[in-house]
Structure formats: C-alpha cells, structure tokens
Amino acid sequence: MSLPRFIVIKSIHANACLGFKQDDPYEGFAEFSEMVTSPNAKFEVESAKGGLVHIRNCINMKYLERTEEDSISGKADEQFWITATAEKKEEDQSKEWCTLFQPLEEDLVNKTYRFMHVQSGCYLLLRQSYSSDITAGVLATSTKIDANGNDVFKVVDWDTLVILPRYIAFKGNNDMFLRLAEIDGHPYLQFLGEDIGEAAVAMEVFYTPNGDIRIKPVYSDKYWKRKPDWIWVDSDDTKGNDKDTLFHPFKVDGKTIALLNLDNKMFCKRFTGLGRTSCLSARIPSVTKEAYLNVVEPVLSRKIENLRYDTENARVYDEKVQIVAKNSASNHTTQSNTMDVKLTYTDTTTSTWNSHFSLGLEAKASFEFGVPIIAEGSVEISTNVETG
Fold first, then answer.
1. Spatial distance between the Cα atoms of 381 and 372, rounded to a whole number of angstroms
2. What is the pTM of this model?
3. Which fold is adopted by the domain 6-160?
C-alpha cells in the first residue's frame, strides 16, 4: 500500500509527531516533538522506483537523510541520525547521502510502518532523552528490528486532518448559530443564535497532540462536556484528561464538520426532545444532516501586514533551460556584415498564498506584503503590494 502524498509520522512511545529542530546546535535534526496539526509535522512523500520514497519536510523544504553526528549520545554505535537537511534528493544508493527510504507496512488497520534507510539498510529508531537539545531524536544505526517497538511509527494522512482556527462559530442545519444558553439552571449549547456577534456564539478551540479538540465559549472559563448525552459547558478540565470533554472533528466538506465525542463514540447533533429544543447532543452513531456544523470565523475582516519570508529555506522548483525567444538573420553576400536581431519575450509572475487551515472559510482579509522573486540565483523581496 502506497503512502499518501502528505503525511504526519507519529511515535507511539514519544506521543509526539516528527518535525525538525529549528535552532542550534542541532538545527535540522529530526525530532518527535510536534503536535499532529503543526506545520512542522507535515512531510511530503515523493515516490521513486520499486516502492521507495523520498520524504521532504514542508517547512524547510529539505529531504530526510542520514547524517553522522557522535556528540549527541556519545556512544560509538549511535552516531548516525536522521536530519531534514538534504537540499536535493539523491537516488544513487552507493552514496551515503542517499535520500531513499523504504516504508514497510507493519499494521494495515492501525496504519503503522517501519522506515528503512535504503543505502545503509538501517531502520529509523526513536531515541529519547540523550540530550537536552534533542529529547526524542531519530537514529539510523541498526539493521535489526527493535524488540521494544521503537522503530514502529503511525502514519497519518495530512489531508484527513481538520485544522480549525483558534476562534470559530458553529451554524446548524437550521441556519442558527450555536450559543451558550442557560436552561433550567444548566449551561446547554443551543442552535438559536441569530447574530455571529453575540458574545455567547464565539468558541475557542484547543488541540491535543493527537488532533482531538476541546472547546469552550470565548467568554466562559468552562469547557464543553458530555453530560449524559447533552453537551454542557461546565468542565474545569484544562488538560484533556476527561474523554467527555474531547471531540474529534471529521471533515464533511470545505466548510462543514461533524464532531465525535471520544467517550461515548457518538456524533453530536442538533436534537429536539426531552423538553429541550435544538440543543447539542452526542447521540448518533453516524453523520446525518442534523450533525452538520458549518464553521464560521467570528471575524468581519482582518488586516495582515509585516509578512516575513523564510528566504534561507526558499527552493527553486523544476529548474531547466528554456528557449525564451529566437530569431535569425541571413547574409547572402560574400562579404562579412553586421546585422541586428531583435528578441522579445514576455515574463509572467504568479504569486499564491495558502492558509494552514483545512477548511475554506470566508473572513475577508487585506494584505500588505512584499513579493519574493528570484534574481541572479537568490531570492529577493520586491516592493510592497497591497490587496483587499
């Protein structure tokens, strides 16, 4: 089974996802220290022949490779580490800096894999707490399977993740906003809000390392909690230890999600019954239209300025020689002559910005920014551009 194009690699033992160190002295070294929704945890898989792959981090745009460094653990048999430092992929398996890896499926149901560095034949292995600089690094020194399972990693398809803004509002299939409402002395969540500007409508989202979420109204210190199947706003658990306060978001379409309560494994829906009208309740095993939650940002507009680009990690794609213009002239005399040949070409530049969030939300934004351009082999920032 082939890997998805964009993945997150999670260590069960470290309870964290793979990223890379962004500061000295071990900048670029792979480390299990990220949440599943972190941009640094996103890797792109590029297929090669024979089921082999190159794996590239989507932040610094560099490929994973095997790097020698004996100062981390101080042990002679632990001197080769995985780093996200290769500028270009290398398929020559005779070279130590070969960037080819072989994913070996361990468990199809749980989507766990081992990864072998092809040139060395060594498995990627979690190594914890050798240094305060790298607390959960990745070794590549052993050609044997680890008896403790530190070489088994869960692979998550990035495109299945639902990455929400911190502040959101929910609209039900009755076209009303979900809001905090006190009913018979209890803090229910009810789909009766008419204005996104209501104080009780805006919600704040908190992610766990696994990609599950906790939610609370912005103007309240209490979190959502299933009780018993209604969702009340009365939890003081700020750590996510209570499964009744944890929800997993599932993407329905570009603007709509469904929420699964992790304790009773039921989806939340707009429910009328038991003396309550259009209140949120975790009570159905599958997603119906009453479980659709349209996600809206409680923001009328925003202005983004003073953007800074990471030009040190800029990358030029698909370099190749191109004929930009051509012309010719003929001398039909027997004497040397000088002729003018005019060449013209059109240079078109396109710039694209993508949001980290996985839903297509509609808050209007105005930008003031410089545009990165390639000039004489390096990346420079042009004059400012404004757009609204």
1. 4
2. 0.79
3. Trefoil (Acidic Fibroblast Growth Factor, subunit A) (2.80.10)
